[in-house]
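Bench notes, afternoon.
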Amino acid sequence: MLNKTHYISNLTPLRGIAALLVAIFHFEMAIARFVPAKTTMFFEKSYLMVDLFFIMSGFIIFHVYGQSFKAAIGADDFRQFIVARIARIYPLHFFTLALLIFMVIYVFPPGTYPNKMEFPSAIPSNFLLLQSFHVHSIYTWNIPSWSISAEFAAYLVFPFIALWIAKSPNRSKLILLVFTVAAYLSIMYLIPRYNPLNPNIPVPHNVNTTYDFGFLRGIAGFVAGVLLYQFYSSDKIRRVFGSDFFAVGAITAVVCALHFGLNDGVCVFFFAMIVLSFACNRTFVAGICSWAPLQFLGLISYSIYLMQIFFQEPFSKGWRLPGVTGFGRGKQNIGFGPGLLYCLVYLVLLIGVSTLSYYLIENPARKFIKRKWGNRKTDADLRSELARV
């Protein structure tokens, strides 16, 4: 089933940086806003980093597994693929959800459970990775994990997409492109959405759907990554987009788009350009991406993403930082100086805890599942590569 492929290390730091930006976004939403939207929309729009995750996931999954389903979808090949993906995402998801449930029920103050976002009937859907399918009227439990649900939905359809592209390359790519554009436009302009905390407030035309049709957002981004890989497969494209000029230009475009709060669809397009240009690069940008601390951040990015809830949860139970004014999600404000200091401490602690969760839970559990139920004949180098996907 598995084919030897080179590891695209340039994309690893993007995962780490994106995970930290999502963590900062939630810091400003749940703990203290220290960068007003009138100053810059950059952090306000950092929820879009999840879409960067989806695009990279589709790109890398096709890079590693695209040839595996080129001829047919065999039962054993499909099983090995799903086992590998479960090993990647489920152990840490299970751990964080179980720990959060325990803390909410037994550690936090009496009377704070159940509540609007943490209630018993939402536990099964979260364990079964259904929380992005609008089964509840609000985001529940480990809120960022909605994207894991959407990601797994994309995994389930990937083998069929890969086979379709192999059997009918032109037609499939065109239809998938139309689907991706239509999905994003539908999320922004057609699908009825509402603010779960205050239904009277209109929802802006953005792609920030989570519990409500988040699966569609995840599949759209994943398919965009798969299509992007088709361009990457061309030697000519790699030569053109491999220059530092394109990589720096793509970064600049994303920063400007987020800063000025441009349409989310535009931002997603620029994300795709970042992924393509970084994957193609072999010069200055690649050298920066090879820096060990950036590679390490990418390595623990999944832990960063799921462990952040434990730093935000106490503040949903009434904690407040000294100097914070205002009440309500996204309305707790603080000056830039102290807010920056608090945020840096938060990030340092988050990275430390995520390092522990990676080495003690995420990585050992992944290796155990692969060893127990995966393909034991896979060579060591490919095992190491797949562990990073």
